[in-house]
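Batch manifest line 189
LIGAND: flavin mononucleotide
JOB: complex structure
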Amino acid sequence: MQKRSLKPQRGFFPQPSYLIGTYKDDNTPNFALITWVTFCSVEPPMLMFASRGKKLTRELVEKRGVFSANLVTTKMMYMADYFGTTSGYSKNKCDEIAVEQMKGCVLDVPVLLESPWVYECSLVDIIEKGTGYIYVGEIKNIMVDETITDTTYGKIDLVKVDPLIYAPGQYYKIDSAIGSVGYSTKENS
Ligand SMILES: Cc1cc2nc3c(=O)[nH]c(=O)nc-3n(C[C@H](O)[C@H](O)[C@H](O)COP(=O)(O)O)c2cc1C
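JOB STATUS: finished
ARTIFACT:
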């Protein structure tokens, strides 16, 4: 297939959506939609998210040293979009939109009841890269909905969990699982 070059840019990578939760000074919760999220260590388990520009989330993560990463489902799309397009500096976001939240089991972080899978993280590093910052968090606990019965690696039914997928400018949903990892080598051996 013929290719053409594009000038270096962010491109279109599909990404998971998380609402990063922090408590403000008055202990009201704040959530921001962050889609540049991935794992970076297995032992101890760690995840990282990238952020840039002036954001209340960055300020609070740096001040408090803890945050929650709440997986966003397609049902949470409106809430997520609102939290992703409204600055925590401009208003108390949780006053504007109905949000059921509780305190984490292990850390002092807000956990969204509607999210089926929530990481409680303790900040271990901040890495500056170009115009952005990478926040590395050690996963201290995961709060999972009881409806997700099988939490074994590779066995979670993602179609049922229904995460909101983001690619620049649009939100998507996952329709079906189409293959298990390793199927190519198993069939050939
Ligand atoms: C779809 C979407 C994805 C986003 N992903 C990121 C991201 O990965 N990193 C980031 O710093 N901001 C991201 N944002 C922007 C923040 O969510 C936004 O700036 C938000 O208002 C910050 O809120 P805060 O001031 O309460 O922290 C995203 C916004 C949208 C709508």
